[in-house]
Request: fold
Amino acid sequence: MTTPKVIFFDINETLLDMQAIRHGLADVLNGDDILVDVWFANLLHHSLVDIASSQYHDFIDIGAAALVMVAHSKDISLDIELAKKTIAEHITALPAHDDVAPTLKALKEANVKLVALSNSSQAGLTKQLKFAEIHHYFDHVLSVESIRAYKPHPNVYHWACQQAGIANSDAMMVAAHGWDVSGAKATGMQTTFVSRPGKMMYPLGLKPDFTVSSLYELVELMS
Reply:
């Protein structure tokens, strides 16, 4: 491995614990928190629909539309404005996983440049990182809002590396989503998949350089 000069981190689920949003969204889904997983999958799916149809909508707006669709599939009537308000309230109040702050601190002390790269809007992303008290660890906080495309579109990774002033081969993408890892790998970035509970690599995706069960292992890789 060529030691990466910059490490890019996905945010939702990779660094922030999405379990905290389950009860909030379940409240508008007749208490069925299993539907929250269906909602997030639909959110990601329809962000790709935007890419394929040459559109761009705010991540919260796509999330609200997806939530209304999931509710509809269960004969639950949900107003899109209430959906948007509910998502915005809860997605910006997610705690970091226990291994996040110690890992970011250790990497910063080792002089590794750290970048947050998220499909969330710039304003939403900033709120998320500040709520989780990890904003200060990042040299750059990048939202796809600036390029109006969503991960895993290749333009996002190329743009992000340009913003950090780094060649793709000298950068590493760290994510708990197989689609994110595959997208980054396809552009020449090094990749690490974080196997958060319930997460696995896409079996047909591009193989990550590393797979870790905890971010603490990432610190060991960099040492």
The mean pLDDT is 95.
